[in-house]
TrEMBL record:
Entry superkingdom: Archaea
Record organism: Methanosalsum natronophilum
This protein's UniProt keywords: Iron
Record-level Gene Ontology MF annotations: transition metal ion binding
Tagged with keyword Ubl conjugation: no
Membrane-spanning intervals of the chain: none
Domain Ferrous iron transporter FeoA-like: 1-69
Name of this chain's protein: Ferrous iron transport protein A
SUPFAM superfamilies the UniProt entry points to: C-terminal domain of transcriptional repressors
Length: 70
């Protein structure tokens, strides 16, 4: 399952993600536990929570991030 199509508010663990230096520098890596806080309208970014941080991720990138349910 990919992050873009996962349920809002439920925690998940990232199993595989594309090489992305920006996400990596923010601490988002394989094995990270995240949850979706909101989805923006018209195919906009997803806002995810990672620890105490909230980050916006482009939907096309989120579609390439493979996750598993916790």
């Amino acid at each position: 399952m990919d992050l873009a199509n996962y349920r809002k508010g439920k925690p998940c663990i990232i199993e595989h993600m594309p090489k992305n230096n920006l996400l990596n520098s923010m601490g988002i890596r394989e094995g990270s536990r995240v949850s979706i806080k909101s989805r923006q309208l018209f195919g906009g970014p997803l806002v995810i929570q990672y620890g105490s941080r909230c980050l916006a991720i482009d939907k096309k990138i989120a579609e390439k991030i493979k996750i598993k349910e916790v």
